[in-house]
Amino acid sequence: MANNETVENTDKSKPSGDAKPAAKKRPSGLGRGLDALFSEAGREAPTMAGGTEPSGEIVRIDVGSIHPHPEQPRRHFDDAALAELAASIAERGVIQPVIVRPAPTGHGYQLVAGERRWRAAQRAGLHDMPAIVRAFDDAETLEIALVENIQREDLNAIEEARAYQKLGEDFGHAQESLARLVGKSRSHVANLLRLLELPEPVQQAVVDQRLSMGHARALINAPDPITLARQVEDKGLSVRQVETIVRDLREAKTSGKRKAKGPAAADPDIAAVEDHLADLLGLGVKIVNSGARGGIVSLKYSSLDQLDMICQRLSGERI
């Protein structure tokens, strides 16, 4: 390493009478975006990183010493796109470094961001690749992995929803803070979390890109989402068609119940209000209208975080 880089990377700066106070410590990578993370890496160091300590510098690390994170939000990697990237890397090398942290096991490194590049580098037969080594904790690691994938639109809706659920349950993030973290609206986060109410086969169809997020949202209120999801695939139904079918099924079901009990016929306007409130709150909404006697509005929540959001909204607290 050149001498000027050695001086640049030490804390023993030359004393002087007009010595300036030490530079203010940068905040951790969260909330600053990936560009900020990369910009503070400095110049690329030509040395190998067999036992590199976290420094924020770009170093070269053995590809075989890097391991994927078990909680990586992204699970689906398109094989054709990966092969294309591997071919590009074989010809030009890895242009953008991956982000890693020392592995919790003490052996090698754990990926924080850039798993697709790492997989492609393996396919291309590279022995080492550029990396930024940072000392992130578990929460920061998952947050940065989530932000990177969302910024690059690499996650499908279910992967994104599961990552939000993980951050909420394990690290105490409310929907509002999750929305700020990824630069999305709170309703976007809430609506994605609602997808996890769907049966596993329907969720898997979204992961496999056999169903779109729009189809999945329309299926949430279906009496039998699995059967209807199969019809969507077999007949190529549009989202609007699915919404109409679900609305008709719900009205028929409600009408049948009311005929058995004797109340008035089902009101399609009530169903429309339910759908509107469900989209607004990101929760399951049920309205039972008893006419002049009033009625009942019930909200379905799937986590304590959603219950907390309901309580805060009803009490007028800011969330």
TrEMBL record:
Keywords, alphabetical: Chromosome partition, DNA-binding
InterPro entries: Chromosome_partition/occlusion, HTH_ParB/Spo0J, ParB/RepB/Spo0J, ParB/Sulfiredoxin_sf, ParB_dimer_C, ParB_N
Renumbered residue ranges of the record's region Disordered: 1-56
GO MF term set: DNA binding
Keyword DNA-binding listed: yes
One example of a Gene Ontology biological process annotation: positive regulation of sporulation resulting in formation of a cellular spore
UniProt domain ParB-like N-terminal: residue ranges: 59-150
Keyword rRNA-binding: no
Any Pfam family matching the protein: ParB_C
One of the record's GO cellular component terms: chromosome
Family, similarity comment: Belongs to the ParB family.
Task performed by this protein: Involved in chromosome partition. Localize to both poles of the predivisional cell following completion of DNA replication. Binds to the DNA origin of replication.
Matching NCBIfam families: parB_part (TIGR00180)
Name assigned to this protein: ParB/RepB/Spo0J family partition protein
Originating organism: Flavisphingopyxis soli
